[in-house]
Amino acid sequence: MLIALSQEGLGVIAGRCIQGAAGATILACGMSLLSASNTGKAQLRAVTLWGAASAVGAAAGPLVGGLLASTLGWQGLFWIDAVIAVACVPVTLFAVKESSDPTRSRSIDFAGTVLIALILAPLIFALTNGSAWGWVSLPTIGCFAITVLATFGFFMVERRVKAPLLDLALLRNWVLVGATLSILLGSGTVNAIMYVVSLYFQNQAVLDMDAFQAGLATLPIAAAAVVLSPLITPVVGKIGARTTIAVGFIIMSVAFAALAFVQESWAYGMFVLPLVGVAAGMSLQNGPCSSLSTACVEPREVGAASGISNMARYVGAAVMTAIVASVYGSVTANQIAVGASESAALATAFSWSSIAMGIWCVLGIALALLVARQVTRKPGEFEYAAAAASTSHTLTPPERIEPEAGATAPAGARQG
């Protein structure tokens, strides 16, 4: 409602901050409650339904959003979101059972939380504005300096707090680190390309789509991810997790290589196959990485490992999008400054953005050589179902968590 009522950018940004904080709470707690409320096959079915809903939302979101923005204006989007949110309050209160673990510490790592924000916010700010400020300017260097100091402080704090936000001991697990970095690269790359595609498709100098047309244009990408999700488990069963992850990154690398040849004369049809390739590759690498991130640790560490991989998803999306936004904006400005037409400048910017994302995917292929080499156990049925169900969350597999003495809550409540 705050966003819908806003008359300037500040109100929109404030509302988005609130949405982000609330969304993080809903995602983590919602999945924990879902898994704690069901067991056995019912649990697998619940996770699958959740994944299906998430996939449908991902596919329909840009399309419905574009339609509403074109007909009701952008404020209409947020009024409808507000109505849905209000309707969910009584549904949650009356239909969802509470769950908690009395053996868990009630301590909150406020210092670690603040330091994470101090690491990411200046970093993203510098990456986004560095080309305009100058990469060696005082504001840019200052932002990077804050990030470095906050990173050092974060590791110092996490060694001492009672309930750390991040268990530093897990960073010694190279399989978890490799899987987490793979998730960061894959999710970050997909979010970054969707950002560039949205700008490029709607620019009047190139494809000149309206919001609805741009949403419709992204439908094949979401559809590819939805169709491939159920196929991940049998593919992994045939060729193995490490090979599946590597194949996923290879497909993404080839797709970005194709997009690097974009020309200002390209019509929409030239983009479809490479973008579907990006979605297909991301689906192949993300699912196994999500499963392995919880399969490579001891049962008592599964929740924390799940939390690390989920954090990597959102950090990757924020940082990679900021980097690509900087590349896209700076290349466009430089090309126009040397006399290129706007359409040619935008095509060149899209090309260089694709090259940057392709490099990240090549790094992902190298990471695949590290992942799954020393896994202590193979992912179970639940983990593969959870990984295949959605590309947006790594779910803690409840049956793998060994209850502590005196624990009364379902293990599924222990979401990382």
Automatic annotation (TrEMBL):
Q: Which GO terms describe its molecular function?
A: transmembrane transporter activity
Q: How does it sit in the membrane?
A: Multi-pass membrane protein
Q: What is its main location?
A: membrane
Q: Quote the biased-composition stretches of kind Low complexity, using this chain's numbering.
A: 404-416
Q: Which UniProt keywords apply?
A: Cell membrane, Membrane, Transmembrane, Transmembrane helix, Transport
Q: Which residues form the Major facilitator superfamily (MFS) profile domain?
A: 1-376
- Tell me a GO cellular component: plasma membrane
Q: Where is this region: Disordered?
A: 389-416
Locations listed in the record: Cell membrane
According to the record, the segments passing through the membrane are 12-34, 46-70, 76-96, 108-127, 133-155, 175-200, 212-232, 239-260, 266-284, 314-337, 349-372
Any one Pfam family here would be MFS_1
| Protein name per Swiss-Prot or TrEMBL | Major facilitator superfamily (MFS) profile domain-containing protein
- Species for this entry: Agromyces bauzanensis
